Amino acid sequence: MKILVTGGAGYIGSHTVRALLGAGHSVVVLDNLSSGHAQALPEGVPLVKADLLDQAAVQEALSVHQPDAVVHFAALIEVGESMSQPGRYYRNNVVGSLNLLTAIAQTRKIPIVFSSTAALYGDAEVSPIPEDAPKQPTSVYGETKLMTEQMIQAFERAHGIRSIRLRYFNVCGAVPDGSIGEDHVNKTHLIELALLTALGQREKMMIYGDDYPTRDGTCIRDYIHVLDLAQAHVLAVEALAQGAGSSAYNVGLGHGFTVREVLDAVDAVIEGSDYAPLTRELAPRRAGDPPSLVADSSSIQQSLGWKPEYVDLQGIIQTAWEWHRTHPHGFQD
Ligand SMILES: NC(=O)c1ccc[n+]([C@@H]2O[C@H](COP(=O)([O-])OP(=O)(O)OC[C@H]3O[C@@H](n4cnc5c(N)ncnc54)[C@H](O)[C@@H]3O)[C@@H](O)[C@H]2O)c1
Ligand SMILES: O=c1ccn([C@@H]2O[C@H](COP(=O)(O)OP(=O)(O)O[C@H]3O[C@H](CO)[C@@H](O)[C@H](O)[C@H]3O)[C@@H](O)[C@H]2O)c(=O)[nH]1
Q1: Is the Cβ atom of 247 under 6 angstroms away from ligand 1?
Q2: In the CATH scheme, what is the code of domain 2-171+223-251?
Q3: ipTM value for the complex
Q4: Ranges for the NAD-dependent epimerase/dehydratase domain (predicted)?
Q5: Could you confirm whether 141 is annotated as catalytic?
Q6: Overall CATH class of domain 173-220+255-332
Q7: pLDDT tens for residues 132-184?
């Protein structure tokens, strides 16, 4: 199959592009490079440098490349920033997705795999969280993803566009050979920041709040390796190609770690090297952060046969460390 990957030059997108190629598919990437890196793409993968807000450019990409399916990653992704810049988030994530859906509806009505998020669930009352838990996002970012899921379903009802919406929990890690990895323009993710702090690029790690109702007072998240997530996309695209109906699946490991436990795991990974343990400082809560997000992923395991290979947090962090240690300035190195 030929797959159009929006946001394919980004962190998860570039790992998924490799996984799709590895599964024998061909790929075209559409990305405005606002936070992605052309260097993250394997040689020979066509890159359409375009913005989803440019409806005509999106339509043209679909007409020229005639893909069989779309995997839609392109979005702004920061929970905290979405609270202070809501307009940017609604415009980029909701209007951008609307443009893509409109273009699909006007051309080939191909199926779509969408990057959704655990942030849909907000302050979840059950843990691990099943897909039918109430959707009550605590951030604008989460709202933009919920709105996009709703638009996708409306476009299915009106135009027959099938979808698999993958609700990722916290994505981390890198290909074990350290050749590509996480290099977000604004660094906000816990593990990326901790490893850059270990490399001496930041003085200390801030812990955003220790008064949450969790075992040590810091937020709990479910950390999933980017390669396991990439494999979920391959399975989803292939299922849709074989005629699968639309669904939404959580993608996570099913157990969560507190912020302090993650920082301990980072210290354990760097222990014995020339790098000092992390200096930690308590800071106020970050707006929009729910206390705990842990996935019930049994549905994707049963329906698509997905099975995560990276189940040990230190092992996952080790792969990210390999990338950051060998590329301390990301794709600039
Ligand atoms: N990283 C996580 O932990 C996580 C968790 C849940 C969901 N997600 C979702 O996964 C997707 C990918 O996240 P990521 O961590 O790889 O982020 P990323 O910033 O590395 O990738 C996003 C890509 O989309 C591109 N992009 C953004 N807006 C665009 C637009 N208007 N037009 C064209 N291209 C545009 C960027 O240049 C970038 O290459 C996002 O949709 C995000 O919401 C990420
Ligand atoms: O320097 C830091 C950075 C983060 N945190 C905390 O660590 C946890 C994880 O934060 P982060 O790595 O920024 O991820 P999330 O805010 O949980 O969001 C990620 O995970 C979501 C799914 O759960 C995705 O939807 C988002 O796109 C993605 O950014 C949160 O409790 C943060 O408050 C700190 O304490 N200090």
Answers
A1: no
A2: 3.40.50.720
A3: 0.97
A4: 3-252
A5: yes
A6: alpha beta
A7: 999 999 999 999 999 999 999 999 999 999 999 999 999 999 999 989 999 99
